[in-house]
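Appendix B. One record, verbatim.
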Amino acid sequence: EEAIDFSREMFKREGIISGISSGANFAAAYRLAKLDEFRD
């Protein structure tokens, strides 16, 4: 479900048409980016 939500959000914000697997990758990257160890 989260993968679908992120896929839709990519389309709404950036106009990127993607599938569920791309949405899952984006969701994982988003979660990692929010971790303290990856912040400046």
